[in-house]
Structure formats: C-alpha cells, structure tokens
Amino acid sequence: MQKEKIGVLLVNLGTPDSPSTSDVRKYLRQFLMDGRVIDIPFLSRFLLVQGIIAPLRAPKSAKEYAKLWVERGSPLKFYGYDVRDSLQELLGPEYKVALGMRYQSPSIEEALNELKAASVSRIVVIPLFPQYASASTGSAVQEVNDVVNKWQVIPSMSYINQFMDHPKFIQAFAENGLKLMETTDYDHVVFSYHGLPERQIKKGSDGNQCQLGSCCNKFHEKNRYCYRAQCFYTSRLLAEKLGLSEDQYTISFQSRLGKDPWIKPYTDEILKDLPKKGIKKVLAYSPAFIADCLETTVEVGGQFKEEFMEAGGEVWDLVPSLNNSATWIAGLKEMVENA
Ligand SMILES: C=CC1=C(C)c2cc3[nH]c(cc4nc(cc5[nH]c(cc1n2)c(C)c5CCC(=O)O)C(CCC(=O)O)=C4C)c(C)c3C=C
Ligand SMILES: [Fe+2]
Ligand SMILES: [Fe+2]
C-alpha cells in the first residue's frame, strides 16, 4: 500500500494585494469585519469599519504600506512562500505544504484545495502566530474549520495553536539578535508585541480571570492562553538565551486601534522615558511576528526609532524577523513531525 501523504497548512494573517489605497481599504474591510478582531456586535462593527475606520485609515495606511513594499511585494507574503518552499524541501515528498492567508490572498480555501488535490489523508495546521490570540490564531483555525466542514471527507486534523516556547523558535530569534549584539554594545532590549484590547484577554480567561497585572508574569496551565502571559514568557525565554538580566529588558505592546484600553505598557509611551533613565542604545525585538511586516519594519523599525531619537536616544536597531532562517524552518519541521 502506498504510504499516506500528510498535508501541512501554514496560515498567516494576510496583507493587501498592493499598497494602493483601494487595495488597502479592501484588506482593512475584510480584516476588521472579522468578529474575532473587532469583537463587538455585527451592526456596530459594520458601521464602525465600513463607515469610519476603513475609509479614514486606508489612505494613511497605504502610505505606510508603500514604505514596506519591495520588488517582490509585501514581505509577509513573499517570506510566506519562501518558508513554504523551504519546509517542503526539508520534509520531502511524503508531505505537501501549502500557504493560506486569513485575509486576501492566497486564501485558506485555495491552500486547503491544494492539499485536497494532493490526496493528503491528514492535515497539520500551523497558524504562524507564536502566541495564541482569538484575533489571530483563533480566527485562522475557525476559517480552516469552516472550509473543511463543507468537504465530504474531513481528514484527520491537528492544530499547533501556540509555539512561543519551541526551542528552535527561541533559538532562531536569539541568533538574529546576537548577530547585532556582536557589533553594538546596547544599553537595553525592548520586546514589543502586537497589542490587544484588554477586553479580549478577559474574555479568553474564563475561570481564571486575568487581572492584566503581575498575574501574567507567571506562565502555567491555567493561563496558557492569556496572550499577555505568553508574551511575557516568550521574553523571559529570549532574555535567558541572550544572557540578559531582568533590568536589561522591557516588555511592551504596540499597534493600538480605537479608544478602548489595550494591554499595557504601550511601546510608544515607554520608549520616550528610556533616554531619561540613561538608556540611549536600544535593541528592539518584535517576537509576535515570524516575518517582517508593517508592524515590524515600519512601526518598530521606522516610527518608534524616530520617536526614540526625538526623545534623546542614539541607537534603535530592530532585530530582523525569522523570515526564511534555517533554524526557524528546522523548528517548523520538528513541530510537524511531533504533531
Ligand atoms: C482591533 C484591531 C486589531 C487587532 C485585535 C489585531 C490583532 C493582531 N494582529 C496581528 C498581526 C498583524 N496585524 C497587522 C496589521 C494590522 N493590525 C490591525 C488591527 C488589529 N490587529 C490593523 C488595522 C492592521 C493594518 C495596518 C494598519 O492600518 O495599521 C499585521 C501586518 C500585516 C502586513 O501586511 O504587513 C500583522 C502581521 C496579531 C498577531 C494580532 C493578535 C495578537
Ligand atoms: Fe493586527
Ligand atoms: Fe494574564
């Protein structure tokens, strides 16, 4: 009998098809109409997104996307294809690897159809978000399920819904930071993560109510899906690999949207205080993303750098994301084989 073929579905967030205002508006509309991203009743979300956020934000965001765009397009997408191809090569012909984006293209449905056409008998789904959040991993998993639920034959499915403590994920990020640390004597490291509305953390911690305070400093079975606790844990693991003591790093959250409170502390606020404390040379990490994207290159590497310099800082270097690093691909291979 022929050996069974295993499908691997890599899912990332997605990016606009181009940096034009109309494509960015289309992307924002699809993204922000997701009830796991803006978790308010449908009618309020519809009015807010279609009537206010998408039209007002699209021209501003399009200018930011234009800074990110290179000849190959948006890094989130072309690194996604690179990772798919590298992982396929490493896993060999018994596996079929596909890439789907939660929003825009290539869609999750297209990617799943590729796996179906390759006659895979089981599928390992890896949402490419190191820390679990309902707005990212949860939404990707829901979309995968919605698609396969329409199939006549539903293959065996397994999901890797967080991997921030995978040794090779940590090692790959540490390697990128250590390369920069060899060239510059930094005063401090900032770990800046994508933020979330506080409400979303509270909703996800039924039975073990997160207080959004020091309770997130410990990571254990009961709060393993608290996004804030996962980010703190990721930072501790990275700090250990980088040989940092507790006073040599700060953890913060970026990319706020709207007026509701988001998880704290906020990166744009903490960075302004650092030079006052004598911290002039900062190494900035963005470990919520596995590829360069708008939130890393433009926000952390561009906007935050400018704000830090204006506040009296001297060096603000962004650690490149994992992109197509060999250690990261080896980590993905291990995740698939252990799934
Ligand atoms: C309510 C709004 C948002 C939530 C919640 C949110 C969670 C969240 N997002 C990511 C990953 C990425 N987000 C990116 C861009 C981006 N995010 C939001 C809003 C929310 N995200 C917006 C409006 C945008 C678009 C850009 C802008 O207009 O500011 C990206 C970058 C994509 C790219 O094309 O490069 C990523 C990646 C995670 C992991 C997450 C939950 C933890
Ligand atoms: Fe986001
Ligand atoms: Fe928490």
Automatic annotation (TrEMBL):
Any one GO cellular component localisation term in the record: cytoplasm
Catalytic reaction equation(s): Fe-coproporphyrin III + 2 H(+) = coproporphyrin III + Fe(2+); heme b + 2 H(+) = protoporphyrin IX + Fe(2+)
Enzyme class: lyase
Subcellular location(s) of the protein: Cytoplasm
Binding residues annotated for Fe(2+), in chain numbering: H194, E295
Gene3D superfamilies for this protein: 3.40.50.1400
Ligase is among the record's keywords: no
CDD domains: Ferrochelatase_C, Ferrochelatase_N
EC number per UniProt: 4.98.1.1
GO molecular function terms attached to this record: ferrochelatase activity; metal ion binding
Involved pathway(s): Porphyrin-containing compound metabolism; protoheme biosynthesis; protoheme from protoporphyrin-IX: step 1/1
Keyword Cytoplasm listed: yes
One Pfam entry name: Ferrochelatase
GO BP terms, alphabetized: heme biosynthetic process
Recorded family membership: Belongs to the ferrochelatase family.
NCBIfam families assigned: hemH
Protein name: Ferrochelatase
Organism: Roseivirga echinicomitans
Taxonomic lineage from the root: Bacteria, Pseudomonadati, Bacteroidota, Cytophagia, Cytophagales
Gene label: hemH
